[in-house]
Amino acid sequence: MIFKRSCAICQIIGLVAAVGTAQGFTQDFDASGPGGPRTSQDDPQQEINRLRAIIRELEAELARLRGARAKEEVSDRNTDLIGTWLGTVACGRRQFTITFSVEEQYGRIGKGKWSYSGAARGTDEAQISPLPTQDTLNSYAIVTARADTYDYIVQIDGNTITGKASRQNCQIYLERA
Q1: Among the CATH numbers 2.40.128.120, 2.30.30.110, 3.40.30.10, 2.40.50.100, which is that of 83-176?
Q2: What is the pLDDT of residues 60-114, one digit of tens each?
Q3: Could you give the 3-state DSSP secondary structure of residue 38?
């Protein structure tokens, strides 16, 4: 009887042990795999998605910066020439007041009227265009239609034009009105 009782206890212990092992076994090998729930497999995919989102944000920021840089370059290349420029030309002891009215602009080329007074007086057609031999974006030539008026090699710096005549020792200074 003791043996039967001990066997009954052994059976109970064996049953408890079997159930405990079976529960442990089912936890390790359920439908999600031997490691339990798929959190370890979802984490790499979530990390990939997070990194892709960061890459998209960086690409958008890079595109925005490239666009801003391109706009700055275009605005540097396409200096706004239209308007009235007032100033003087000094050729030794001879002084002239200048009014250069740029009425049309095509890219970096402007066309308009050139008026001068002082040691001489007159009106002429004039064009301002970039110098083909200069590497800088701000170098221009002001060329008038008449042969007896001087042409100028100038630099544009914002609202100021400065330079000198191409064939005489004449300095020019103009400001946007």
Answers
A1: 2.40.128.120
A2: 888 888 877 666 555 555 578 999 999 999 998 889 999 999 999 998 899 999 9
A3: coil
